[in-house]
Write a structure and sequence with these properties.
It contains six helices and seven strands, in the order H-E-E-H-H-E-E-E-H-E-E-H-H. It is of the alpha+beta class. It has a domain at 106-183 and 211-243: SH3 type barrels. The strands form two sheets. The chain has a five-stranded antiparallel beta sheet with strand order 6-5-4-3-7. A two-stranded antiparallel sheet has the order 1-2. InterPro entries: 60S_ribosomal_eL6, Rib_uL2_dom2, Ribosomal_eL6_KOW, Ribosomal_uL6_N, Translation_prot_SH3-like_sf. It comes from Solanum stoloniferum.
Length: 256
């Protein structure tokens, strides 16, 4: 008897779960009823006048003073000036961020002022003593040997690669207003495409010749500097000599 009651209990439980699962399913959507079914294609069962009464259009007219209400058409959307792309790329392309970086003027070292004699620490003219003329907009230092003394022309140097000395030269008579960063820009020449016949011909690369304007500018700066340098004893020899450390010299104890 206990087994039979247990079987009946589980059967009732299964039936209730089965009933709940079917009851949770949404009923099928009701079919739309057509007010004027077609007898044949294009011919309705009721006439226009009959449908006028069936739809209740007479009541709507009566309510609105004998006229059917007119619905204002929505204004057409403005045509976009820039249309979005029709196809979306398969791979997501990252949008470049807006660069809000503003160039800040490079702060000049306190020990470097116009006319200060500097010692170049690296590069082609390593160990040479030069005269500082001015700081350019790029933050680089405009220096010269002068060229007639130690072979250092008008040149741009980063202040990280120079040592400022206590020696100074008066540069008030030197005019360097025309010299800026564009003065040192290289002229890029367009390479001509070689034809089939010229492909195997070896052409010698012409050496870059310094323009005459730059030569004249260098001579003018050197002439103005040499006037003041010659007035100071031993300064000419000091600028001509190359700086170097000898045995026994301690760099951290030197006073420049």
């Amino acid at each position: 008897a206990e087994k039979i009651s247990a079987i009946l209990h589980f059967s009732n439980l299964g039936f209730s779960l089965f009933h709940q699962s079917f009851s949770s399913v949404s009923p099928m959507a009701a079919k739309k009823t057509i007010r004027n079914p077609e007898l044949i294609r294009g011919v309705g069962k009721f006439s226009r006048s009959k449908m006028y009464h069936k739809k209740g259009l007479w009541a709507i007219k009566k309510k609105n003073g004998g006229k059917l209400p007119l619905h204002e058409k929505k204004p057409a959307a403005a045509v976009a000036a820039v249309k979005p792309p029709k196809f979306y790329p398969a791979d997501d392309v990252k949008k470049p961020l807006v660069n809000k970086h503003k160039p800040k003027p490079t702060k000049l070292r306190a020990s470097i002022t116009p006319g200060t004699v500097l010692i170049i620490l690296a590069g082609r003219f390593k160990g040479k003593r030069v005269v500082f003329l001015k700081q350019l907009t790029s933050g680089l230092l405009l220096v010269t040997g002068p060229f007639k003394l130690n072979g250092v022309p008008l040149r741009r140097v980063n202040q990280a690669y120079v040592i400022g000395t206590s020696t100074k030269v008066d540069v008030s008579g030197v005019n360097v207003e025309k010299i800026d960063d564009k003065y040192f820009a290289k002229q890029v020449e367009k390479k001509q495409k070689k034809g089939e016949g010229e492909f195997f011909e070896d052409k010698k690369e012409e050496k870059n010749v310094l323009p005459q304007e730059k030569k004249d500018e260098q001579k003018a700066v050197d002439a103005a500097l040499l006037k003041t340098i010659e007035g100071i004893p031993e300064l000419k020899a000091y600028l001509s000599a190359r700086f170097s450390l000898k045995s026994g010299m301690k760099p951290h104890e030197l006073v420049f």
